[in-house]
Amino acid sequence: MISDDRDALVSRIHELEGLLAERKREVERLQQGMKAAEGADVQVSITEFEDTLKRLVQRVAMILQAEKCAILILDKETGELVARAPAHGIAPGDLRLLRVKVSEGVSGAVYRSEHPIIIDDAIHDPRTVKENVALLHVRNGLIVPLVVEKRDEENRVTNRVTIGVLCVFNKRYDGLFNEEDVRLLERLSRNAASVISNAQMYKELVEEKEKLVHTIESLYAGLLLISERGTLMQMNARARQIFEVVGDPIGRPFVDMIQHEKALEVLGRMLSVKDQSEAAESDDDVRAAEEVSVAERDSGEERIYQLHAAQVRGEDHRLIGTAVIMNDITEIRNLDRMKTEFVAIAAHELRTPMTPIKGFISMLAQDPDDSFTPEDRHEYYTIIEQNVDRLGRLINDLLNVTRIERGIAMQLFWEEADLAALVESVFEVQRGMTNTDKHPLVLDAEPAHLIATVGRDQIEQIFQNLVSNAIKYSPEGGEVVAIIRDEPDKGTVLMGVRDHGTGLPDSAKAKLFKPYRRIHNPKTASVKGTGIGLFLVKNLVEAHHGNIWVETEMGKGSTFWFRIPKAPPEAGEGEAAVAAT
């Protein structure tokens, strides 16, 4: 009897010792958790956020004696709680499986209610169906909300925002999570939420900065941001290209990085303006927009940039620096110059046929005695007729250019035409206006008579412009050849005009078919023209559903080729159709 009591007493002592040891371990664990929480509450530098989160996750798992630990953050775009690295005990591939909508699962319930939940049997718990716990080998778990609180000066909570949940899974030693673990994890979660919130804010800040930097770098306009001290705070790729800056110019004086005297002079004037609003009301407003010419290193071509300056101030109205935008206005200035030249040339071209018309009409009108022979009168009338036709062609060209630039469709009346006969009629007109001995006009047609359904007047206008150009830019004796080739396998006709002129440089090819463009060549400087002929030719060819190009070699002449269908796909014989240019 005494022996039985003694055995029971010993057994009870061992049981109490075990409970005491377990309680001692829990107290030690709680103390470690308090210290970890206090340590996590300190300020960390921005660059240490990732490492801080990693250490925090590992420490949470260690303190709670959990095999796995993960942070789920709300994705505002999808409305899901998504696991984010770093995690503990979960492989990166498995971490992607840990995601659930805020309206579903245990994590969603914790997020919505802001109350922790203990899962004792994750496999059979109906609330964990959406959490993929079976794939993650989760037996049990504890989930608490991540809440960020904002407090006022008197430590009162002014705002609460739930950003996600903190999860620990699989209690070690086959144990289960209890209320003491809840209190400990809630304490740790407050500090974790603060770190995560700061990390998120920093990440969003970095992403916004990267977007801004990439936007600035991709601008076609050059951009400079110069501090009050004259150092470069920003210089995008275009600005570096314009001034041929190599390396990182940020933080260096702009006078050292920009090797362009005129640009430095303009920038100096812009930076000397203390207040842009005052400058706009005074004579200093010219400093807000000035032009600078810069020669490109690759092509050597002069580019014109318009510089605009504006002071940049912070929310406190403190001056941050001066922003300078450089817009390439070369094409605008060239267009202005070309249109001015065009007006002068067009006036000259219009006056040229008017002079003989007026002269011969005055001479005939002032002959009351009818002293001119019939042959003389016929010659005079022929000259008048040719110049009237020339004047009419020029006026039609100007009207067609206006229609094209306004986007008005060009009307073509399709009809069958003998292309060789059409070219011969063009030659007859040209022979009436030039000296045939100086420029032999040759037709090279295969077959000799090729019938195609085309806009007769427009094809004639194409050849008139191309042949006229070939004559203008060919030296005396230079042969002008009109070429016609049947392409029965393609259902098309290949045509072209070849000259023996000076040829064209590669840099001129891109400008050939644009309006008001004339190629500047000292050898052909005396050749007059409006610069709209090839522009019209290109649009007339495209109205025929064709394309045009040039083959040229300096010193050996040029050939302007164009290819059109034998018949338009949408119009039959004798049928009128409208083709948009």
Structural commentary:
This protein is elongated. The protein has helices at residues 2-40, 49-63, 92-95, 105-113, 179-218, 237-242, 254-257, 261-272, 276-280, 330-365, 374-405, 419-433, 456-472, 506-509, 533-543; strands at 66-75, 80-88, 99-101, 117-119, 141-151, 157-171, 222-226, 232-235, 289-295, 302-313, 319-328, 410-418, 441-446, 451-455, 480-487, 492-498, 547-553, 557-565, 576-579. The chain is α+β, with helices and mostly antiparallel strands and 581 residues long. The longest helix has 40 residues, at 179-218. It starts with a helix and ends with a strand. The relative contact order is 0.06. The chain has a 6-stranded antiparallel beta sheet with strand order 3-2-1-6-5-4, sandwiched between helices. The chain has 4 domains: 17-208, GAF domain (Beta-Lactamase), CATH 3.30.450; 219-328, Beta-Lactamase (2-Layer Sandwich), CATH 3.30.450; 333-384; 409-579, Heat Shock Protein 90, CATH 3.30.565. The model is unreliable at 33-46, 277-287, 522-527 and 571-581 (pLDDT under 50).
